[in-house]
Design goal:
Elements (H helix, E strand, L loop, with lengths): L6 H7 L13 E6 L16 H10 L3 E7 L10 E7 L4 E7 L12 E2 L4 E5 L6 H17 L4 E4 L11 E4 L3 E3 L7 H9 L7 E4 L4 H9 L9 E2 L8 E2 L7 H4 L10 H13 L3 E5 L2 H13 L9 E5 L6 H8 L8 E6 L3 H10 L11 E4 L3 H9 L1 H10 L3 H8 L9 H9 L3 H11 L7 H8 L4
Parallel strand pairs: 1-2, 6-7, 13-14, 13-15, 15-16
Antiparallel strand pairs: 1-3, 2-7, 3-4, 4-5, 6-8, 8-9, 9-10, 11-12
Helix pairs in contact: 7-9, 8-15, 8-16, 11-14, 11-15
Amino acid sequence: MDPSPTCSAISLAVGEPLLGTAPTASEWLLVEHVASWEHDATASLPEPARSAVAGWVKAGNRRVQLIRRPSRRLSGDGHLVAVADLARGTIVGTRVASLEAVNVPEGGEPVTGPLVLVCVHGRRDRCCAEHGRAVVDALTREMPGQLWESSHLGGHRFAATAALLPSGRVLGRLSPATAAHAIRRALDGEPTGHDRGQAGLSEPDQVRAMTGSAVPSGALLRPASCGAQPTIVRPWVPDPAATGEVMGGDGAVLAEELDRAREAGAAGRKVILVEGVSDKRAIEALASRLGRDLDDEAIVVIPIAGATNLTRFLDLLGPSGHDVPLSGLCDEGEAVLFQEALAQAGLGTSLEAQGFHVCRADLEDELIRALGPNRMLELMASQGDQRGFRSFQVQPAQRSKTIEEQLVRWLGNHKIRYAPLMVAALDLYAVPAPLRGVLDRWDR
C-alpha cells in the first residue's frame, strides 16, 4: 500500500473547510453501470453512448454520475438512466437494455427518491475507495433502498463524500459511525456538521445558502490525488460567527484547537472536549452563572472541530500523550464514534465512566427543550430575530414541522451566538444533565 499521506488526511490536518465545495452543476445524468469504472467515468461507456452523454454535458450546467447498487446487480429490468434536475427537485428516467443504448432521456417516469449517492471511485482516488466503501458497508444496513455507489462526486480530499438527490445536498468527511445520522439530518433539511454545500449553486452562493452570510469561498488546497502534495493557493480563515456549524465543527479551526490542546496538556490542565464552539460557549456561560472560574480551576474547554477529530485530541491528551483528566460532550449521533475513539486511546468504551456525556440530538436541542418554545421565542424577540423566524416558519420545507423542530433547524445557523444566551435564560434547576455533568465531574 502506498505509504504517502492521503489527500483526505492532509485536508483534515490543515483544517480545510468543507463548505462551498459542492459541485456547481444543476442537472445530473445518472447511468446505472454495474461493472468497474475507468478513471474518467464516462470512458467506461461504449459508443455511441459516450458521445451522446458528452454532447449533453457540454450543452448546459451538467455532470454525469455512474451509479450502481452495492450488490453490483442491476436494480431492475435493464440499466436505469435518469436526469436529476436540482432546480426543480425532480428525477425522471427510463431503462435501457444495454449500455450501448444509453441516451439522455427526454421525459420518462418519475424516479422515487431520495437517492443517496456515495463515491467509491477508487480508480479516481484511493480515498474514495477506502473511506467510501466503509461508509457504503455501514449504510447498506441503515438505508438499503436509497443507497447507490457513485463515480467521482468531486472533492476526493473530503472522502467519504455523498450527494442526496434530488435535493442536491452534498456531504463530506463521513465515517461509518456518522454517515447515517448526518444523511438523515440532511434529508430533513437540518445542518449536519458535514455539509459541503448545495449542488447547483456557485461556491459563494453555497456558503450564503447555508449560513445566510456572504462568506468568501475558495479552497485552501488545489485538489490533488493521493501521493501528490496539495498546494495551498489561498488561505481562508472562516468567520465562526458567520458560518456556524455548517463548516464542520461549529466554527472551530482544527489547527488552532490542536495547538491549544498541546498547551493545555503540557500544563497538566483538565480538559473538556466538545464538538464545536457553541458547546464551548454554553459550558463557559454555565460556569459563570455558577460562580466558577475555569482558569482558576485549571479547566480548559476545547472544541475539536467535529467528532471525526476526537482521536487526534485523545492522542495528545490521553494515556499515550499528556494523560490529563478529560471529560466531554457529544451529540447522540456521534456517540458510537466517541466510544470507538476512547477505546482506541485505551480509555475503555464507557462514555459516562470517562466523564463524556451524550446530548439527545445535540446540545441546542437539549437547551430548547429545557427552555420551552415560548421562552425561546421571547429570547429570539429580545435579539430582534422573531420576525426572521416567522418568515422561516412559512417556508415549504418547514410548514409540516413542529415548532420545536423548526427552532432546532433555525438555530443551526445561529447556535454560536445563541448558546450562551440560552444558558443565561435557563432556570438553574432546568440545566440539561449533559451540560451540568461535564462541570460536575470537577466540582469544587
